[in-house]
User: What shape does this take?
Amino acid sequence: MSFTADIWKKNAALFEATRTMPFNTELAAGTLSEERFRHYMIQDAHYLIAFGRALAVASAKADTPDEIVQFAIGAQTAIVVERSLHKDFMEQFKVTPEVFAATPLSPATHHYTSFLMSTAWGASYPVVLAGLLPCFWIYAEIGRDIIGRAAKNNPYQSWIDTYAGDEFHEAVRAVIATVDRVAAVASNETRKAMHDAYTRAAQLEWMFWDSAYRLEQWPV
Assistant: This one.
């Protein structure tokens, strides 16, 4: 069994909890409220800035030229390509640049982005990749799952199509292959740290969607 197959198996229950959570169930049905999706999009746009930075650090830490390019392109995609999707929804939901800039990171977003940046700067290259992997892999599998059960005329179809699309899945498969490559030559201690980083990031993925569903704000 490959490293990533093992890590997926050990976190299968967490993925199932994410797949069936109210946010994703209602998104697939097309019944998710605009208020909840708006909250999600604003927070996700904030998140992608940190995700792009973490990918750039991963690129700097990469130990092969191909992987330097892989994660540099990933950083560009996170900032330019995925945020273009957000732009369309921002316009649809009348989120102006001023409104976005004035909206702080929610507690869950703050937690997740802090985890990404501290891991990116403080951990070894293999552990950084493991912490980044859930955002790729879980989104791909959620997108693939939702497109198979999405309601017709779904108001969130462009979001679904992005993460269920072949281009995104090809990029995810490349990241999975890279994680397997570095895990194959890592020490047992490093592989344990990779498992821990993956699980924590996967938990934070669940928390991120849950926080959007609850319209999470700072309590004080």
In short: The chain has eleven helices and no strands.
